[in-house]
Write a structure and sequence with these properties.
By secondary structure, the chain is an alpha/beta fold. It has 16 helices and ten strands.
Length: 399
């Protein structure tokens, strides 16, 4: 299959090791052409989220691939540091893993509803960078389909659907109630808006910090107040809870700033990677949580997991069928040629050929017939079986 992947995720690597390989959108765009330039790489997609960084490579024929080394060289980090905390997969194992990821089955928060969009975005970036081919394109489209089906055909009841929801739910447990609690949300991206909306829905008084505000353009969740980001520490002093979810390369909440507050917040929730909140802020009084502290709060119905697994199995079978047929195309072309050769040895054909030029029509008929026959048997068409069929035809023609 010549398909490989390597991943560094929350299940195998601590947050401190995930941070250096947590790439922004711009970094992914820069890395893809470098990865694609590596020897033996036919196509590549780089999936980078808060909880995982995974590189998928479709390689040239008869190639062995050290995917971690390829990524490390492109991103300029020491591959040896990550050998023990990364997981490599190939062939069907890589296909199954990607579909499980897209379905939220591999997320910290089971059924995470953001991951399918992240898988779709990773594929879109690869297309824009010109590092996508038919194999990876079809695989990622099928994985997105699997993710969508799991969300529409299973009921993930009682399960927080994102890290933002999980953080708010755990904060509610921490305080007993969020009603009338003063909550500050730093970051107005998707994660920040989800957190702000969830806090507001539970009765908290929510203020969202903004770097800039443009009337009619900046979206602040309904019921939430806005505050300038540069003055965030003013509004944090006296708050009960702070949630930070930005893409900033620097700390949005420092330990020294927290130490200078008259009444620092009781709880700081960091939903970013790289981390937004300096961990030593916990020494100043607040409880500090990061993504690894959220865990998985949902109770999973066994039937839901089984239904999701069945959907993944079906989508993987569809992709395998497509891939096997694609791999068979060169042999199918040879079968068509062999069928024409057999026809040309037929006495009836040769007698008709004396009166008319049948070669063009014969070729068309053979090609269409083979396509119709094999197209209806895609579930059993594999190169090995077609090779045996071709060998039989050639023996019959005397070749």
């Amino acid at each position: 299959m010549n398909l490989w992947m390597v991943g560094v995720d929350f299940a195998h690597a601590p947050l401190a090791l995930r941070e250096p390989v947590c790439f922004t959108r711009g970094q992914v765009q820069a890395l893809l052409p470098r990865i694609a330039a590596a020897r033996g790489v036919a196509a590549c997609v780089l999936l980078a989220t808060c909880n995982r960084t995974e590189l998928y490579i479709h390689g040239a024929e008869h190639t062995e691939m050290d995917v971690l080394a390829v990524l490390a060289q492109a991103a300029d980090f020491d591959a040896d540091i990550y050998r023990a905390v990364s997981v490599g997969r190939s062939g069907n194992a890589a296909v199954h893993h990607l579909m499980s990821v897209a379905a939220g089955m591999e997320s910290q928060i089971f059924g995470d509803d953001q991951i399918v969009s992240q898988v779709r975005e990773a594929a879109a970036l690869a297309r824009e960078a010109g590092t996508m081919d038919a194999v990876l394109d079809t695989l990622f489209r099928r994985a997105v389909t699997a993710g969508k089906r799991v969300r529409t055909e299973t009921r993930l009841t009682g399960v927080p659907a994102s890290a933002a929801a999980a953080g708010v739910r755990r904060a509610e447990t921490f305080f007993g109630t969020l009603r009338e609690k003063k909550a500050i949300v730093i970051g107005n991206g998707e994660m920040g808006r989800l957190a702000a909306a969830a806090l507001h829905a539970r009765g908290a008084a929510v203020t969202v910090t903004l770097r800039t505000y443009r009337h009619g353009e900046t979206v602040v969740p309904s019921g939430c107040a806005a505050w300038p980001y540069d003055r965030r520490y003013e509004v944090m002093d006296g708050a009960d809870l702070v949630v930070s979810a930005t893409a900033s390369p620097h700390f949005t909440v420092t330990a020294s700033a927290v130490a200078a507050m008259h009444r620092p917040p009781a709880l700081l929730v960091d939903l970013a990677l790289p981390r937004d909140i300096e961990q030593t802020a916990a020494l100043c009084g607040p409880t500090v949580w990061n993504l690894d502290d959220l865990g998985d709060l949902g109770e999973h119905n066994t039937a839901e997991r089984a239904a999701a697994a069945q959907i993944i199995k079906e989508e993987q079978a569809e992709w395998n069928e497509w891939h096997a047929y694609r791999q068979s195309l060169p042999v199918i072309a040879q079968i068509k040629d062999a069928a024409l050769d057999r026809l040309r040895y037929d006495h009836a054909y040769n007698s008709l050929h004396e009166d008319a030029d049948l070669d063009g029509l014969a070729a068309l008929a053979v090609h269409k017939t083979v396509d119709l026959l094999l197209g209806g048997m895609k579930d059993i068409v594999i190169p090995e079986r077609l090779e045996a069929c071709l060998a039989h035809m050639k023996r019959g023609s005397g070749k």
